[in-house]
Design brief:
By secondary structure, this protein is an all-alpha fold. The protein is built from 8 helices and no strands. Belongs to the sigma-70 factor family. ECF subfamily.
Length: about 160
């Protein structure tokens, strides 16, 4: 990739990568750091990266940088030990957006990433697999499990409305 192609990639994809990372961690400063690290990685490997695959490379690098940061900061209980039924939301409350964001925050990081990429960003299963390094069936399973948890967490829609 040439310098001009690198600059074009920055102009073309920086907003999308920024939004993707910000939706996952909701911290603008950390998001900016991750984006900077991502473009630094791209610059260091710009001679090796094919311009036609730069979008996939950027999202993969951002995803892996985000995962690394999240793992370093993670001080939570193991998700396998949590009984989600005890944490579900079924009270009468009408701010669906707030409830949904709380539910998404409770998802394990891999499930949160793939469901955000699929439902918020609109990527195909294949693209998500390329970005995350998962197979297409694995992506589908993670999305299924995430949506199942979200449905259980939110509870019956009639209670909310």
């Amino acid at each position: 990739m040439t310098v001009e192609e690198f600059n074009q990639a920055v102009n073309q994809y920086s907003d999308n990568v920024y939004r993707f990372v910000l939706k996952n961690i909701r911290d603008e400063d950390k998001t900016k750091d991750i984006i900077q690290d991502t473009y630094e990685k791209l610059w260091k490997k710009h001679a090796e990266v094919n311009y036609l695959k730069v979008k996939s490379y950027l999202f993969s690098a951002a995803y892996h940088t985000l995962i690394d940061l999240t793992r370093r900061e993670k001080k939570q209980a193991q998700w396998d030990e949590v009984d989600f039924r005890n944490h579900s939301h079924s009270e009468g409350y009408s701010d669906l957006n707030e409830i949904l964001h709380k539910a998404v925050k409770r998802l394990p990081e891999t499930q949160r990433m793939v469901v955000m990429m699929r439902d918020y960003e609109g990527y195909s299963y294949k693209e998500i697999g390329e970005i995350t390094g998962l197979t297409e069936p694995q992506v589908k399973v993670y999305i299924f499990r995430a949506r199942k948890f979200l449905k259980e967490y939110i509870g019956k829609i009639e209670v909310l409305v």
